[in-house]
Amino acid sequence: MMSSSYPIGLPNTPWGETEKAEWLSLQRIQRSYADDVLSQLDKLSSDFDVEQYGSLNYQPYAGKDYPLFAVKSRPWNPNRPTVLVTGGVHGYETSGVHGALRFLQSKATGYSEHFNLLVLPCLSPWGYETINRWTPLAVDPNRSFVENSPAQESALAMAYVASVSGPSSNKEGILAHIDLHETTDSDNSEFRPAKAARDGTVNTNWNIPDGFYLVGDTVQPAADFQRAIIESVAAVTHIAEPDEQGCLIGEPLAQPGVILYDTKAAGLCAGFSGAEYVTTTEVYPDSANSTPENCIQAQVAAVCAGLDYLLQVK
Questions:
Q1: Angle at alpha carbon of residue 65, lines to 62 and 68, rounded to 5°
Q2: Count of domains in the chain?
Q3: Which member of 190, 251, 282, 293 is catalytic?
Q4: 8 lies in a domain?
């Protein structure tokens, strides 16, 4: 289904700096990173190491900079496998941020004797505050986990994880990476039309799946890992059914509730770590059968199911 034209820019003409500035001028702060996220991190410092790994230099765009934080289990043991959990790569995907925080608050200490846990709960705090997918420069962080990244959010996260975990080819590298996301109705109403306008292309909306699903990695699909997560989350929330073409967001099912992307080639967050086990969660918060709390619980269930699976096979 083709969407109507976007109100910024000309059809079939990529945005220049003028259009990007116009887009930025329309963005508004709608919630507080400090109140919702940083205040929660303060409470975790008795059980975890909370480290600032960078700052987003957004004074020219937002009138302030944004400190970025990671949470590490303790004690950190280089002989244990490391599991990376990321949230808020797309700041508007609320349960990704709060699912990462809830996991730390309620479940993480139970796994700390088995794994080094490295959690980056909110990679895109400006996106969180403005309920937005992009950076202030109209860049998608989740297509920017590449060399010479155009997104500070992505570049700082990659550099920090590499400094903590070591090269992925070493035993100290990342065993598993679980990236917490949502698919929302606003993908069709706002973000896909905006992307098409920015790029000077024609937008065709996808069918928004009603329910939870996973995006695995084409190169390392880890089918049993994905299946274990789906089975666990199904006890918390409903799993998305495929559309009439047997697809979710235009991709064929690899197994119930799971599609695959070449995550590294696409510049996705899940692809940068080189982990053996990789998945991206996709919660649907706009479902009539979901609540904000249910979405958070689904994210926590996904992380715990992934860790429980790893305990069985490693």
A1: 125
A2: 1
A3: 282
A4: no
